[in-house]
Amino acid sequence: MPKVFLKTYGCQMNERDSEQVLRDLLARGYEKAETEAQADVVLLNTCSVRDMAEQKAIGKMGMLSRLRASKPEMVFGFLGCMAQSRGEELVRDVAGVDLVVGTQKFHRVADYVEELVRRKTVLRENLMDDERFSIVDVEEEAGSQETIREHVLESGQATAFVSIMQGCNMHCTYCIVPKTRGAERSRAIGEIVEEVRGLVARGVKEVTLLGQIVNLYGRHEFPKVDGKSPFVQLLDAVHEVEGLRRLRFTSPHPIGFRQDLVEAFARLPKLMPHVHLPLQSGSDRILKAMHRGYTVEKYVALTEALRRARPDLAITTDVIVGFPGETDEDYQATRAVVERLGFDNAFVFRYSPRRDTPAAEMEEQLSDEVKEARNQDLLTVVDAWAKAKGEALVGQRVEVLCEGLSKRNPERLSGRSPGNKVVIFEGGERFVGQVFEVQILRSTGFSLYGDPAIMG
């Protein structure tokens, strides 16, 4: 049977989309290839958030297309956000690309792959030259949010992503996502709950609800009930699924946190005490230029309210340095907020101009040298807090859901704490997929190391 190699760039939404594509191809008899050289079909699911992600995908495809010399019938395709953004130009500008499929057409990929494989097989059998034929589909499609619903689970897999919505209406001035993902569209609560039930029946113990701005779920489709937003209604419904041990969500937006969601952290024990809450800047002037819709004061008040509701809450964040017009005073304000709030971890990004976004056309674009200096400086603050947060857990017992072998050391196991910290420990396969306590012996700041004696 033909084999498919699928590589994913970017966020958890992309990972979830890739899983659906792989599931559809496996259902048609394809096999998963472990390497590109083994494959008959090579698909790259792309990201457009930063230029580096696009360049990596284009560079990767350039290298992979050389495989066609020994196997001319191979199919090469781009999927996802960059495919949506660039469309036909990828076929024109990147050698060997046969397929370009946008973010609302993942459910069509298997059909398109089969058509390309069929045409190439006919050409080979008739000893014909490989005529130039490609498929590009980046059109919108109503109901596409309902198509990401099946899963490919590995043996013992205990965690899963569940896509609850697609698209974004926020239009932050630096972000291309509204163009690549379209407008907000949400699935029905009942359908999501049934998907979670099916995952739990297959051994999953933790689900993470996914959306571009996940806590704005359903605001256009569904009404509030008893003062609860559609998203909190969804959390309540998923929380009731029997056998589910843990519930998470990502990524939210600060403006989507109302009192009902803050209170959910206090009253829903399965809702894990971790929030990824993008700050982006600690300067009100820059936040306004970014079109973020909140002030530093409101962001700080939100973090304080969340920590009151759940004292053990871990908060992580995203910060952009070097946004157009960011002065040293603006950057120092960001640094001060990060220092004040003491995040468990933060992803610090140098601003990257994205075409077709307002920020890319703004004056006062900063140099790469300034961006890099601010990036490195802010990382010292982030790393110091991450180290302090990790060391505070040394000597404590922490509940861990074992996800499998450690990526860096296959002789050990890895899992995550309720606060989403990676915990490394020794143990056999019987622990995979189980929830238990581990005594924390040491911390590197980003990973915790546990005592296997606790695992009885």
Any key phrases for this structure?
pyruvate-formate lyase- activating enzyme, OB fold (Dihydrolipoamide Acetyltransferase, E2P), 19 strands, six-stranded parallel beta sheet, Rossmann fold, globular, alpha/beta, 34% helix, five-stranded mixed beta barrel, 456 residues
Task: Walk me through what this model shows.
It is a single chain. By secondary structure, the protein is α/β, with parallel strands linked by helices. It has 3 domains: 135 residues, Methylthiotransferase, N-terminal domain (Rossmann fold, 3-Layer(aba) Sandwich); 248 residues, pyruvate-formate lyase- activating enzyme; 58 residues, Nucleic acid-binding proteins (OB fold (Dihydrolipoamide Acetyltransferase, E2P)). 34% of the residues lie in helices and 20% in strands. The strands form 5 sheets. Strands 2-1-3-4-5-6 form a 6-stranded parallel sheet, sandwiched between helices. Strands 15-16-17-19-18 form a 5-stranded mixed beta barrel. Helix 7 packs parallel to helix 8. The longest helix has 24 residues. It is globular.
